[in-house]
Design brief:
about 250 residues; alpha+beta; Glucose Permease (Domain IIA); seven-stranded antiparallel sheet; about 10% helix; disordered N terminus
């Protein structure tokens, strides 16, 4: 496929590419997104999820980071600062996403991706293992990283061009700290964007079908973009109490 060249200042025009993405990219029905991590922080330091059996190999090879003193506190905090995950002059995103809750944030490749809030790095994938021949789901995110916020929420971003140096599982980060750059790795349909998902921290027990997002991010992105501080913790907690950490991907 011939790479697309997206000039700065034309990010809003990428909204016109939504039908392309829905046809086989980030949000295609039957081809859920986002890569399995190559590393993850131990789940013992975050909100305890409902115990389930992890499906073998569902999210690709993983390894657990050792317990570290810089992991987030077990009790989620309220009133933390939240910032928009992409630092760019021109960005665009949809209020909805095909097939499941999530948001594609369109910006030029190379624009900074930052931590939404204070927390600890959860999963990190520095290798693009996605192939169109399959499997669809575990590796769709390409290069990706998640932050387990001190508010008890996991914030996930994928399709990155690169992961910043020192961003590894268990490392403490602050709101606005650079995690990497916008890219088009994985199943991004060769379009520069950040897939952004919000979910409970089910580390070690869930797979890509939770990590990719379980609640709609757009209302929170709208707030953060305007300098507000709308917090998703209550909605994520409610979802988690109802669903736990599903051990199998959805059938549709």
């Amino acid at each position: 496929m011939v790479p697309l060249t997206i000039g700065r200042g034309r990010a809003y025009a990428l909204l016109l590419l939504a039908p392309v993405l829905a046809a086989g990219g980030c949000g295609a029905p039957g081809a859920p997104t986002d890569a399995g991590p190559t590393a993850m922080v131990s789940p013992t330091a975050v909100v305890s999820p409902t115990a389930v059996t992890s499906p073998t190999g569902a999210a690709g090879p993983t390894s657990a980071a050792p317990d570290r003193p810089d992991q987030p506190a077990a009790t989620p905090r309220e009133g933390l600062p939240h910032v928009f995950p992409v630092r760019a002059g021109k960005v665009a995103y949809h209020p909805t996403h095909s097939a499941y809750p999530g948001t594609d944030i369109f910006a030029d490749c190379g624009e900074p991706v930052v931590a939404v809030t204070d927390g600890t790095i959860g999963e990190v994938s520095r290798r693009d293992r996605y192939k169109k021949s399959g499997p669809q789901g575990p590796y769709n995110g390409g290069l990706s990283v998640s932050v387990i916020g001190a508010d008890g929420v996991r914030y996930y971003g994928s399709h990155l061009t690169e992961i910043a140096e020192g961003i590894d599982a268990g490392v403490r980060v602050r709101a606005g700290q650079r995690l990497g750059t916008v890219g088009r790795t994985g199943n991004a349909n060769n379009v520069c964007h950040l897939h952004f998902g919000i979910s409970p921290p089910c580390l070690g027990e869930d797979g890509w079908w939770i990590r990719r997002g379980v609640v709609w991010p757009a209302p929170y992105l709208d707030s953060w973009r305007k300098g507000g501080n709308r917090e998703p913790a209550a909605e994520v907690t409610a979802w988690h109490r109802k669903h736990g950490c599903p051990s199998k991907p959805p059938t549709r």
